[in-house]
Amino acid sequence: MVKPAPIQLKQAPASPPPANTPPPSRVAILFAAPHRPMFLAGAVQTVLTFIPWLWELLARTGLVAGPAWPWPPGWVHGLWAAYGIFPFFVFGFLLTAMPRWQGLPDTPGEAARRPWLLLVSGWLVFDIGLLITHPALRIGGLALVLTGWLLALRLLHPVAFKPGGGRQHPATAWLALAAGALGLIAWLGFAVIDDPRLARIGIAIGLWWLLAPLFMVVSHRMIPFFSASALPKYEPVRPDWALYVLVGASVVHGLLASADLAAWTWPTDLAAAGTAFWLSWKWQFRRSFAVRLLAMLHIGFLWLGIAWLLAGVQGLLHAVGVATLGLAPLHAMSVGFFATMTLAMVSRVTLGHSGRPLVADSLTWRLALGLHAVAALRVLADIVPVGHALLLVIAGTGWLAVFLPWATRLVPVYLSRRADGRPG
To answer: Domain of life of the organism in this record (predicted)?
Structure first.
């Protein structure tokens, strides 16, 4: 393996602040750039939402009494993950990156204040409603989340659909977020009328119409770009057809899953698997290990091909009457692809936008590798014939062992001024 080479940022010296200028408050620093509040909330959510889930997993082994859930715990877990963890990172990234994709000025940090406040307060109210089993609080919390979501969509709309601007990546990302609003409406409907079909639709939309397209769009846009900036003599490969295949397969899978016909998604799943593996090869996966921060992205993307392959094999076997693999494809996608790509991308954006060198230090690298081990354990839990409950506990513990130190390191960054003294 090639020894990682650190990347140093080349920056002009910052101008000193005027004399007698009071230091900015923590709130002013937090809203100095839109990614700051969104990433902070997402980092906190990676820990908070998994504490009760690990408690539930421990209860399934019989070691402790489990928490009281007003809804099936797996549904709550899926709701938190699809709409209450990853979207904070997605909104933060897109509010920062999408204007640059379109050649527009940066989004002011203050623009994210109202959507952020609604999203955060909504999840807080919803979680209290879970804790005290109060239906009105759960309904009100989801309504607040939906309102914040729609405000963020409105903020991104003129950027995504800028006249004369490129629309392949920004418009596709915006449409995926709009689908996420539909998923939240389905969850809100479930909270009101208790129809389990709406919960199933909300879960399917969150995975296949919201998160999978978003992460595939960002990967298609950014991995070749970051690779070209880090590796010498690198030729970026970003074919349009590959993105169409990946997003199209996800839309089809979500549609059939919502109709309880997921067993018939295998042709598009396998086509998506082949496309994802081909992109990993064309993006020169092996060369990425010259730079740890880049390798984190490439390894995370490799999980996309694995997830699609497992989904295709599972569907093909189901079509001939063999039920197997359980939730392994889903967790290869969610933990293997979404979570590891989040850790990699957010780490990179946080370093770059806080005036720090773009270098993955030893702790970040170990946490990234640890998260891949967590993903592998979670997938194996549905493949190996024994030890299912124990593997789930180990994987859940591993998640917290990765994200607790990661969040502990990053949260203070979002509450501190840039290291280079620049605004933002």
So the answer is: Bacteria
